[in-house]
């Protein structure tokens, strides 16, 4: 029978636990999460186990990436279920700080981001978001000092921002993007899916189907504008309020006109009721 993971809630406890993990020069992979773990998160843990000798999972709902009108207070917190899932996966260490441990009194430093963080996608609607993400991920990298960090590709712009930051700041952390895990009907797994009513849940896979249709049209030679227009119509007619559906260069996130402009990523964000969903696929 395997041992339950060590749980650290203070920096001294984290450092002691990491010292134990790193004996015999073991490699360490970090999986940053905000909890409310689902099968998508577990896929990240399993990838981390394949890449490193030891796995650390952080569980921290980060207030600095939420705007005042967003759902920080109601964001699902399921610690007991999360800890049980991580124990079942034989995770070595859970880093579960509270807000005061991560942002002590007098905290006054932030990481500023540019490049993929100002691509006119999520940053148009959540201008505060990537600064908060970069700051907390930067702190996690400094605290854990992992060899690898595993992020899901569902938050694709975030993945590009974190990858750029890790390289620009010479962190020595190799950021690895894991494939999006989907329900059988194509809906990307997300902690926010629990907010969907049964009727909304039936409609939600429209985002994935619309992106697949856009990809099909692009491969058939349609311009990005024409293909995206078709996908946008499918989404809005299903009952979503569309924030964006965009065809972008997969590395730089720059706008593209057609398949000739390089590897393409389709990215979408839309609201159904009060729930905002994001998704993306490669073309």
Automatic annotation (TrEMBL):
InterPro entries: Cyt_trans-like, Pantoate_ligase, Pantoate_ligase_C, Rossmann-like_a/b/a_fold. Pfam families: Pantoate_ligase (PF02569). Its EC number is 6.3.2.1. The active site is at residue 41. Keywords: ATP-binding, Cytoplasm, Ligase, Nucleotide-binding, Pantothenate biosynthesis. It is found in: Cytoplasm. (R)-pantoate binds at residues 65, 158. GO terms for molecular function: pantoate-beta-alanine ligase activity. Its main location: cytoplasm. Beta-alanine binds at residue 65. ATP binds at residues 34-41, 152-155, 181, 189-192. It catalyses: (R)-pantoate + beta-alanine + ATP = (R)-pantothenate + AMP + diphosphate + H(+). Pathway: Cofactor biosynthesis; (R)-pantothenate biosynthesis; (R)-pantothenate from (R)-pantoate and beta-alanine: step 1/1. Gene3D superfamilies: HUPs, Pantoate-beta-alanine ligase, C-terminal domain. The reaction proceeds by a bi uni uni bi ping pong mechanism. Homodimer. Belongs to the pantothenate synthetase family. Catalyzes the condensation of pantoate with beta-alanine in an ATP-dependent reaction via a pantoyl-adenylate intermediate. This is Pantothenate synthetase. It comes from Rhodopseudomonas telluris.
